[in-house]
Amino acid sequence: SCGKLNGASESRCYACGAAMSGPSAWVNSLFERPAIACQFIVAVCALDFVLMSITGGVQNVSLLGGPIQLASLVQAGGIVGGLLSEEPWRYLSAVYVHLGLLHVGMNMFALLQLGRSAEQFLGSARFFLLYTVTGIVGFVASRFWYGPVSPATAGASGALFGLMGLQIGILHARKDPRTKGLVLQQLAYAVAFAILLPINNAAHLGGFVTGWAFGRLFYLEKSPHKHEKSFRVAALVCVLLTLASLGLSITSPFVEQARLIERMRGD
Question: Average model confidence (pLDDT) for the chain?
Fold first, then answer.
């Protein structure tokens, strides 16, 4: 919890009092595994994509993913039409939903490229909290941009732009001269996204600005070890909320309504 060295026979840390065995010690060891948060995110995104592919058919596993069946997108946790007013947990579940092989492949590649170094710098708890909050804020920004009836949208890219914002926020707080170059690099990445995929610019911007704010706050944070326990609790809550949001999407009553709409349209 605090990074101090202890004797192997100690039951509690001499510096912070954290238990060296039992449930709390297990939680500590879980967060100390290399890139555990990145691995969890990739696993959930992959499983959700497999679910959508099984329920929606071969069109969902094509290169670009479309046209995605409405019912499978709703069941996977995506954002469709006015569902956010009825099922607000989709602000979170949609962060793990992807609309084709290229979409999920590019996002997971970017996550591993950006995320592993960020997780090593922040620690797994802060990293997962950052990923969750920037992903949600991205879709909240999208909701304000598009209004109450949103076009179908999903994906981790709002959170990925949060990781970009994190890097720039840290460099900005350091007054690092490399900030300008990194901004141009990330801009090029954003343009590549726009060319290859249909993108949600509002979600990207919302995630980026939130990540930038987190970067400055984390860099200026004093005595981060003192707050580690609180961040680990917050991260575990985010994990549970993530799983709950996906579970609620799978069992949503709107899945059957979407299937009925598809049958009426002859899809």
Answer: 84
